[in-house]
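Homework-ish question, so no full write-ups if that breaks the rules, but can someone show me the predicted structure for this set?
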Amino acid sequence: MHDFAYHRPQSLEDAANFLRTAEDPLLMAGGQTMIPTLKQRLAAPSDVIDLAEVPGLVMIDVKKAQVSVGAMLTHASVASSPEVQAALPALAGLAGNIGDMHVRNRGTLGGSIANNDPAADYPAALIGLGATVHTSKRQIAADDFFTALFETALAGDEIVTSVDFPVPELAAYMKFDHPASRYAVVGVFIAKFGTDVRAAVTGAGPCVYREAQMEEALTRDFSPSALADMTISPDGMNTDLYAGPEYRANLVKIMATRAVEAALKGGG
Amino acid sequence: MYKDVTITINGEEYQEHIPVRLLLVDFIRDVAGLTGTHVGCTYEGVCGACTIQIDSEAVKSCLMLAVQADGHEVATVEGLAQDGKLHPLQEEFNEHHALQCGYCTPGILMNAEEFLKENPDPSEDEIREALIGNLCRCTGYVNIVTAIKSAAEKMA
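A: Not a homework solution, just the prediction itself:
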C-alpha cells in the first residue's frame, strides 16, 4: 500500500472540498473492496477521505411506496431491518447474502454502487426496482447511474448520500453465487409494478443491465413458463475461471425463472 | 503520513502515533502485542483468521486501517475469557475438539460470539452460513458446528 493522507471530515461539504482540492483523492465507505485495492496498488490515492463520521448518511426511512437507504448503511443493517424485511423482502434478502457476515458488518450501499463491480448485488436491485440515487449535487435515475465496468455517472467531486427504492407489487432476487466470495456469477432481480416488469442482470456482463426480452415476456405473462422458450445470447458476456459466456447466458435464464417463482411466493 | 490515535482493545486504551496505512490487524499484533489475532491469507480478506470485533461487530481486521478504529472499541480473542474463566464458546471448542492446528480458531470465536448474541438458538444451517467468512483447513467444520451449537445451549 502506497502512502496517503487520511481525512475524516465531519460534514458532506468538507468531504466534497477534499475531493475538489486534493491531487488524487479517493472516498472510503466500508473499505471492503477499497482496502484490498490499495494493498494490491491497483489504486494509489494521494488522499483517502473516510465518510464514517459524515452525518446523515446512516439512515433508513421506510414508507408504504418507498424504502430510502442512506449511503453509509451497512449490508447487515439493511438485512436485519424489520421495516425493510416487511416492506421490501427482496432487498433485505439481497443485502443479507452479500459476502460474509464480516463484510456485511462493514460494507455499505454507497460503496457498492459507487464501485460498480460487474458482479456486485446492489446494482441489480437499483436497476430492477428503478431506484433513484441521491448525491451531494443531484438525483440520478438508476438507469443512468451505472455507465460501464467500474464506471458510474458520478462526477469527481460528487458523493452518494442515499438511494430511494420504489416498493413493487412483487419482487425477488436470485443469484448463482461463487461459493467462496459470494459474488454473483449471475444474479437476476425481477420486480413487478402493476403491469410494468423490470428484469436486471448482474454478473453476466461488464455492467448491470436490463434484459428487454424478459421484461416483455413477463409483462405479457408474469410466470416462470413465460421464460421457458427464451434464448439468451452469450455475446459480450463475461468469462473467467469459473464460468464462460454460454454458461452465464444459461444462468441468466435459470436465475430469472427462479426469481419469478420466488416473487410469486412473496419475494426473497 | 502519521496520525495520533486512541484505540481501546479489550478495555485497555492504546494512544499511539502510527502510519495511516497501518492495517488494524498489524496494530493489534505489532503495536499492542496481542498476537492471538492471526493473519492467514496474506491480508487478502478471504480467510477470516484476523476476525475481531469493533464496537461489538465482527470484522476482518486486515480489511480496516488502524486509523479507522480511532476512538472505537476493539475486542480480540484475548478478551474472551473473563477472570481466568473461559468463555462458553472456548469451553465447547475444547470439549468437542473443534480445532486441530488452531490457527483459524481466534477468528471463528470472535465471529461466533457476535453471531450467538444475535441468534441465540441457531440451526445447523444458520451456523454453517455464519461461518462462510472463516476458513478452516483441518476440521471439516463438523466439530466447529457442534461446538457452537453446544455453546448456544449452554448460554441459553
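Now go work out the reasoning yourself. Hint: The CA atoms of residues 80 and 112 of chain A lie 18 Å apart.
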